[in-house]
Amino acid sequence: MLFQGKSLSAELLENGIVEFKFDAEGSVNKFDQATFQDYKAAISAINQCKEAKGVLVTSGKSNFIVGADITEFIETFKLPEEKLIPWIKDGSDVFDAFEDLNMPTIAAINGFALGGGCEMTLACDYRIADTTCSIGLPEVKLGLMPGFGGTVRLPRLIGADNAVEWMSTGRAHKPEQALAVGVLDAVVAPENLREAALNMLNDAIANKLDWRSKRQPKLEALKLSPVESVMTFSTCKGMIAANAGKHYPAPMVMVNTIETAAGLDRAGAMACENKGFAKLAKTDAATAQIGLFLADQVVKGKAKKAGKQATKVVNKAAVLGAGIMGGGIAYQSAYKGTPIIMKDINDAALDLGLTTAAGILTKLADRGRITAKKMAGVLNNITPTLSYDSVKDVDIVVEAVVENPKIKASVLAEVENNVSEDTILTSNTSTISIDLLAQSIKRKDKFCGMHFFNPVHKMPLVEVIRGKDTSDETIAAVVAYAAKMGKSPIVVNDCPGFYINRVLFPYFAGFSQLVLEGADFTAVDKVMEKQFGWPMGPAYLLDVVGIDTADHCTGVMSDGFPTRMGKLENDPVSALYNAKRFGQKNGTGFYDYGKDKRGKPTKLAAQAAYDLISVEHKAFESEEIIARLMIPMVNEVVRCLEEGVVDTAAEADMGLIYGLGFPPFRGGPIRYLETLGLDKFIAMADKYAHLGEIYQVTDGLREMAKSGKSYFTTDVKTA
């Protein structure tokens, strides 16, 4: 053994081949500080071994290398840029040192080779993968760009245009795609990977393959003529500007880095990459997107833990109510492999539910995403019925009837008498108290809320709502079922609006108040979409949610929090509701909806909406519009954390990202708050405190600001 570390080893095999094996003590291989120390030591050991003739890079895990351990680097990213650049260079120098080994090298790639794992393979002369391989550079999803030579080596291997496409999208590629573009030299079956890699390496050692000329282009400038360079990078920049936009700086910094480095050798190009990476690491977008990744890990980790703790496994489900929502829930369960009974009281509703599921499947089939066999299998997993006889043996029931407490309570009581004693009952409700609904059933410990978002197949979030009598076993089983459905479940405690709607309606209240003061709702939508980054501005979102639904929810929130969320006089939402302008569902709301001559959907500001609101227009600065809408939302998120409605800042952020489309580049409401700065936010809120309680920050938030603590590391529950 030439070298044995905790993360990797270097062992001399026959014919002078050194096996350079990544095999960390944990479940996966990743680049952390300890691995880098081992990496340096192993390279030194190989350089000192006179018998070494070639290097075979392998993994002792089911995946090659999943990337860098971003958790170790977060604190380092806080360093000033001038200190960050040398730190990054220390890391990229190790990859250069491996590439400079005076012997041929080959990577035998199995499973994931992502980020730093992909860059490790790029530092090799040859790359051979098995059919399980998934390879790519996803750093852009963290607001970063490759930092271990990816922007230097990949363009010189596959061309600048292909490399930009790989890095700006961050997609992982199948082995056939990587082979076609030139990232891989061969693809083989998993059982043949080691032998094939050894054969190729032996050929290189015997000079049957010219490994030196294979390596050389990675050490030189890009082979692009001036005309080719202008055309390539102009096209790439145009595509990135159109797709990424101003809120995501990483793709443009990355392509500018490649362009600047195009005429330089490896050393010069690597210096450009070091500088570009440091620049991005200091951006708010990177901080937010890294935070988003870590928050997602928290949510997934809790779901995984629930799956292990669950004493009841859901193998068969039922949904009551077969409308669009019921059909969406049935589709999602069936698509992910859990058979489901779809129960309703009339055939027309069952037909609508089945049509909803079939429509989703047809679109997937038209795009080549699923086969006819898979489509048939999913539909066969959905059993429509008018009778309770079919639901007797199910493990879980999702009630999804009309949003009316009396009807829901009646249906839940009825179904409880038609299922076994250990069947879990859940209600898909967006506002009705779980504790209120629990009064209608006997086994309150086996009941909770399961709030899906529409359209079910697209929206990742499921709110699992715990009532005061809900057992931990029930919560664990429901969370595990939601995760099995492919959703991201977040457990919240029962309160008016639960978590998502509770924090959404102060945002809507801020919007309504602003409109009553003369703001043009189209101008507000434009600011919140184009500048803040929401997928829809508040007026458009209200139309999509449904003006009737929004008016109902406003009443629920007003009853629940009368001093903070009492209904506004002359509320524009109520004015539209009373005029039967219900939004997209009937084509009239804040906007009028229709189709143009080509059949494409149209959306035009409705004069009727302006007439109903009937106020004199007044211009507002963008900063005030953003403040007037976001302060109430962020304040309510903080209250939910303090009251224990939601458990952690990570879940608070992911809830709004997955449930409402909160701008990902801002990382969620708490990340946005901390990026803005608690003191600055408080000063901004105090400026508008006279407008009402929704603008008044909590004492807890003021204490957090004084102590300089973070919501991500502090438990702030006061209730």
TrEMBL record:
Active site (catalytic residues): 451
Family matches, as PROSITE patterns: 3HCDH, ENOYL_COA_HYDRATASE
Biological pathway: Lipid metabolism; fatty acid beta-oxidation
Positions with a binding annotation for NAD(+): 325, 344, 401-403, 408, 430, 454
Origin: domain of life: Bacteria
EC number(s) per entry: 4.2.1.17, 5.1.2.3, 5.3.3.8, 1.1.1.35
A Gene Ontology BP annotation from the UniProt entry: fatty acid beta-oxidation
Assembly, per entry: Heterotetramer of two alpha chains (FadB) and two beta chains (FadA).
Protein name: Fatty acid oxidation complex subunit alpha
Organism: Thalassotalea piscium
Lineage: Bacteria, Pseudomonadati, Pseudomonadota, Gammaproteobacteria, Alteromonadales
Gene giving rise to this polypeptide: fadB
